[in-house]
Amino acid sequence: MKSLVELLQSNPYPGRGIVVGKNSVYYFIMGRSENSRNRIFSVTEDGIRTEAHDPAKLSDPSLIIYHPVRQTEDALIVTNGDQTDTIWKMGDFRAALATREYEPDEPNFTPRISAILYKDGSFEMSILKHRDGRCIREFFNFEGVDEGKAYFISTYQGDGNPLPTFAGEPIEVDMPAVEEVWAALNQDNKVSLYSNVNGEVKIFNKNLGD
């Protein structure tokens, strides 16, 4: 089991990241461009939504404005794009993601990462990635984890041009306090962080002074 804080401290740009543990979810976004950095998380009736911090600076909302988190009667859905709504509408994690692909932002072809945490503590994670002009869909099932343990997946392995896609299985990590995770994210690139621990939600927004 690796230290999540150390992983984040050693990586200036994992992009977007999802951490799922026992009754716990963290989701963070980072940005390199002005458009990506011009965002905040705002609370909605059933989760959160990304919004432009300064609407006048918003140049292209297509891949940066979405619902990262939505709560249903049976599960908590968290993703890095509008596939949250696809899963929420269809009610079937795998079937919904079978209809989606990586993001069309050549040359990065940003992966779509998704997770769903069920009431019994089990969860699924997925990454949809580009390879040789095709979409590779990877799914991982977890029948719950021990207290203090979690699994982490991100869009990128690190900084680069083009950005290198996350590779391998979700990484087994510890589950530090959300304040430690926020502090560990690269100061220049971090944008927002959401946490839901046993139903208690916390949000951090760099643009609002957090």
Folded structure, characterized:
14% of the residues lie in helices and 38% in strands. The protein has 210 residues and is mainly beta. Strands 3-4-5-6-7-8-9 form a seven-stranded antiparallel β-sheet. It has a six-stranded antiparallel β-sheet with strand order 11-10-1-2-12-13, with no helix packed on it. The longest helix is centred in the middle third of the chain and has 8 residues, at 83-90. The chain is globular, with a radius of gyration of 16 Å. The two termini are 29 Å apart.
Spatial order of the strands forming the largest sheet: 3-4-5-6-7-8-9
Low-confidence stretches: none
Count of DSSP strands? 13
SSE succession: HEEHEEEEHHEEEEEHEE
Helix content: 10-25%
Over the alpha carbons, how many angstroms does the gyration radius reach? 16 Å
Figure out the total of helices.
5
Beta fraction: 35-45%
For the terminal residues, how far apart are their CA atoms? 29 Å
Q: Indicate the overall shape.
A: globular
Average pLDDT metric: 95
- Major β-sheet, in short? 7 strands, antiparallel
Category from helices, strands and their pairing? mainly beta
